[in-house]
Amino acid sequence: MATGTPDGQTVTPDWLTIDVSAIEGVRVKEIRPVATSNGYLTEIFRQEWDLDQLPVAQVFQRTMYPGAMTGWHAHAATLDRLFCCAGSVRISLFDGRKASPSFGTVWHKIVGAMRPAIVTIPPGVWHGVVALGPEPALLLNLVDKAYAYDAPDHWRLPPDTEQIPYRLA
Fold first, then answer.
1. Which of 5, 67, 107, 109 is the most exposed place for a label (fewest CB within 10 A)?
2. What is the pLDDT of residues 41-99, one digit of tens each?
3. 51 occurs within a structural domain
4. Structural domain that includes position 85
5. What distance separates the 2 farthest-apart alpha carbons in the chain?
6. What is the rounded distance in angstroms from the CA atom of residue 144 to the CA atom of residue 32?
7. 101/48 Cα distance (integer angstroms)
8. What's the rounded Cα separation, in Å, for the pair 130 and 68?
9. 101 near 24, Cβ under 8 Å?
10. Residue in 63, 26, 62, 31 with CA at minimum distance from that of residue 46
11. Are 26 and 52 in contact (CB under 8 A)?
12. In sequence order, what E strands does 122-168 have?
């Protein structure tokens, strides 16, 4: 037999992913849908999960066509909580906070209807989302501060920026 490197553990015996974010302040909660007599019920957010202690000030959804991407964006003060409830997406993060112990780190998570999880993204962490697969993806965001129409807390970079060492495209 050929020699190689053995795989490390990636799931628990209960099939929960062992996937600790390498970016300071990012939290991930894998969620198990509950089978009902007429489908599935999936909790999206519960305060007692202790992902953060911030309020939910606004919930919005984004429909993404297959292959669509958001580009890189970050917030100065707003915490994002992303949940993909239809299709699947790859959420890519880059820690742009100079004072963070994980400054400069890139991290990815694939989530969706088949593997639900909620990902919390603190202010200052750049993030981009790409829809995967052949069907549209539906992404929910449960932010701690509602969108300010007159002064958006939203900063953008293109998907292929030289400022982040990963291309979304």
1. 5
2. 899 999 999 999 999 999 999 999 999 999 999 999 999 999 999 999 999 999 999 99
3. no
4. 27-46+57-146
5. 65
6. 24
7. 27
8. 6
9. yes
10. 31
11. no
12. 125-132, 137-143, 155-157
pLDDT tens profile 109-160: 999 999 999 999 999 999 999 999 999 999 999 999 999 999 999 999 999 9
Distance CA 125, CA 31 (A): 23
**Residue that has been written with the tokens 């993806």 in this structure:** 137
How far is Cα 43 from Cα 117, in angstroms, rounded to an integer? 10
The C-alpha angle 4, 7, 8, rounded to 5 degrees, equals 140
CATH of the domain at 118: 2.60.120.10
Alpha-carbon distance of 133 to 154, in angstroms, equals: 28
Its pTM stands at 0.86
Q: How far apart are CA 162 and CA 105, in angstroms?
A: 15
Q: 1 pLDDT band (50/70/90 cuts)?
A: low
* Ramachandran quadrant class, 133 (left: phi over 0; alpha: psi -120 to 50; beta: rest): left
End-to-end CA distance of the chain: 39
Q: Which amino acid is at 51?
A: L
Instruction: Read off the DSSP letter of residue 31.
Output: -
2 assigned to some structural domain: no
